[in-house]
Every structure is written in structure tokens, then in C-alpha cells.
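Long-time lurker, first post. I've been practising inverse folding by hand and with some scripts of my own, and I keep getting stuck on stretches where the C-alpha cells seem ambiguous. Below is the full C-alpha cell string for one chain I'm working on. Before anyone asks, I'm not after the true native sequence, just a reasonable design that respects the backbone. If someone could post their per-position residues I'd love to compare against what I wrote down in my notebook.
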């Protein structure tokens, strides 16, 4: 299943992913980033430093507010951070 999804992502001409959850296992395995260059992910449940190290310069991370923890339960200071 995971390898099929990776093949689908790599083979697409254009693709926009909006995902509530962690996709680390897929993102770090895709070597050929020619078809997708914008990702809207739930970064609060992923290791963003590691993803940035591995994917920096290859994709644009869109979004970034933790919508499952900070938005519903966080303070104003949490949101500003």
C-alpha cells in the first residue's frame, strides 16, 4: 500500500496533498520531487526539523498551525509562537 502511494505521487504531473496526520514515512522516501512542490500537512504531528533537513529546497510546506492541539486548546501565546 505505501509503495503504491509513493509510485502514484511520483508519477503524477500535478498533485496537492492536504493531510491530517503524519506522512513522514512517505515524504522522506520520495527521491524524485518533480511532480509535487506544495504540501499542506499537519506539521504538529510530524518532525518538521527532520523533514526540513531531508526535503529542504525540494518542496514548500503550506500551513503550519497545529489544528488538532493548538487551535482548539491553545492560548493566544501558543498561536503567536
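-- Answer (accepted) --
I ran through it position by position. Result:
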Amino acid at each position: 500500500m505505501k509503495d503504491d502511494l509513493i509510485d502514484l505521487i511520483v508519477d503524477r504531473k500535478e498533485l496537492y496533498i492536504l493531510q491530517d496526520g503524519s506522512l513522514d514515512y512517505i515524504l522522506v522516501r520520495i527521491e524524485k520531487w518533480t511532480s509535487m512542490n506544495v504540501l499542506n500537512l499537519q506539521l504538529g504531528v510530524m518532525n518538521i526539523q527532520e523533514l526540513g533537513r531531508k526535503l529542504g529546497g525540494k518542496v514548500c510546506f503550506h500551513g503550519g498551525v497545529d489544528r488538532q492541539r493548538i487551535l482548539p486548546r491553545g492560548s493566544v501565546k501558543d498561536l503567536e509562537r
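A couple of notes from the structure itself: The chain is about 40% helix and 10% strand. Residues 2-11 form the longest helix (10 residues). Happy to go over any region you disagree with.
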